[in-house]
C-alpha cells in the first residue's frame, strides 16, 4: 500500500480516483482548492490548497510515495489563455524533486502532445476551436513531465463520460493504435489506481478508450 497524493481530488477524475484508491487500501491525501467539500473517510487526509501556489504544492507532496495529477477546467475557462496545467506542473515537479518523490501519474487527454496528430480530419477543426488553448497547455504539461526525469506515466483519456467502472477500456500504448473514443471517468480512475503499484508503463503515455 502506498501514500498517495491526488492533485485535483474534489471532482471529476480526481474524485473518482480518490474513492478507488481508498477502496484499494492506500492512504490518500486529497489536495484541491475546494477540498472542504470532500467528506472525511478512514485513510483520507483532506488538504485545501492551490495547485498554482508553490508553497501549497510543496507541503502537499511532502511524505508521499506517489502523486496522481488530475486537474481539470470548465469550458468557460478555455475562452482565454490557459496556463493551469503547465504552471501547476512546474511547481509539482519542483516539489517532487525537493522531497525525493519519484512516481508521477498524470492525466492529460487524447489530443495532447504527439497524440494530436492522430485526431481525424473531421474532428480536428472543432477540437482546435473548442479545446485548442487547453490542449496546447496540456502539451506543455506533457513536455515538462517528460523532461523531468521522474518515473512518470501519462494517461490520455478520450471523451469522458459519467458511466460506471467497467474495466473494459483499452490501453493504447503504440502510436499506430491511437484513436479517439469514449471512456468513463471511473474507468480512467481505475487505470490510475492500477498504476500506483505497476511500473510497466513508466515512460509511456497511452490513450484510454473503449
UniProtKB/TrEMBL annotation:
Pfam family, one: NAD_binding_10
Domain NAD(P)-binding: from-to ranges: 8-197
Domain of life: Bacteria
Stated name of the protein: NAD(P)H-binding protein
Natural source organism: Rhodoplanes tepidamans (Rhodoplanes cryptolactis)
Amino acid at each position: 500500500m502506498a501514500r498517495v497524493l491526488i492533485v485535483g481530488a474534489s471532482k471529476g477524475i480526481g474524485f473518482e480516483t480518490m474513492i478507488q484508491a481508498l477502496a484499494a487500501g492506500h492512504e490518500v491525501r486529497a489536495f484541491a482548492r475546494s477540498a472542504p467539500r470532500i467528506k472525511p473517510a478512514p485513510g483520507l487526509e483532506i488538504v485545501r490548497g492551490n495547485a498554482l501556489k508553490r508553497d501549497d504544492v510543496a507541503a502537499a507532496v511532502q511524505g508521499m510515495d506517489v502523486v496522481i495529477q488530475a486537474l481539470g477546467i470548465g469550458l468557460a475557462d478555455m475562452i482565454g489563455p490557459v496556463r493551469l496545467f503547465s504552471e501547476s506542473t512546474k511547481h509539482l515537479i519542483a516539489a517532487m524533486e525537493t522531497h525525493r518523490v519519484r512516481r508521477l501519474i498524470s492525466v492529460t487527454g487524447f489530443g495532447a502532445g504527439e497524440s494530436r496528430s492522430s485526431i481525424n480530419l473531421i474532428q480536428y477543426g472543432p477540437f482546435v476551436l473548442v479545446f485548442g488553448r487547453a490542449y496546447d497547455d496540456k502539451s506543455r504539461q506533457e513536455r515538462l513531465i517528460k523532461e523531468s526525469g521522474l518515473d512518470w506515466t501519462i494517461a490520455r483519456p478520450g471523451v469522458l463520460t459519467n458511466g460506471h467502472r467497467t474495466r473494459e477500456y483499452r490501453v493504447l500504448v503504440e502510436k499506430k493504435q491511437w484513436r479517439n473514443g469514449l471512456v468513463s471517468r471511473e474507468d480512467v480512475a481505475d487505470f490510475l489506481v492500477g498504476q500506483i503499484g505497476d511500473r510497466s508503463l513508466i515512460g509511456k503515455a497511452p490513450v484510454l478508450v473503449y
